[in-house]
Design a protein that fits this description.
The chain has 126 residues and is mainly β. It is built from no helices and eleven strands. A hairpin with a 6-residue loop joins β4 and β5.
């Protein structure tokens, strides 16, 4: 079964850090564009960051300078390093992959993403 598995969420105080991981099961992420999305209660799901197969990245304005997306080819995993976390970052975080290889990194069109993980919860609270 082809699926994505997220991990690394948890409870952290404001100003703290977390690193989320997105790993595949049954396929490889090596040539795929991967995006991270989040959804807070009562809000629409929004794009956070994405990385294309050639390493190009894109960030939402709300996380620029605080979050970093990266890809570890040897582990076939995509990471989202989140620093200086704020209460408004509290949400379920989901990674997603575009099935079409070598696709551009786009956050505005979630329909491009074909495979989605189950999500991991991030809660920022004192």
């Amino acid at each position: 079964q082809l699926q994505l598995v997220e991990s690394g969420g948890g409870l952290v105080q404001p100003g703290g850090s977390l690193r989320l991981s997105c790993a595949p099961s049954g396929f490889t992420l090596r040539f795929a564009t991967i995006g991270w999305f989040r959804q807070a209660p009562g809000k629409e799901r929004e794009g956070v960051s994405c990385i294309s197969s050639d390493g190009r990245t894109l960030y939402a304005d709300s996380v620029k300078g605080r979050f970093t997306i990266s890809r570890d080819v040897t582990k076939d995993t995509v990471f989202l390093q989140m620093n200086s976390l704020k209460p408004e970052d509290t949400a379920g975080y989901y990674c997603a992959a575009v099935a079409r290889l070598f696709s551009p990194c786009v956050l505005s069109d979630q329909g491009r993403y074909d495979k989605w993980g189950q999500g991991t919860q991030v809660t920022v609270s004192s």
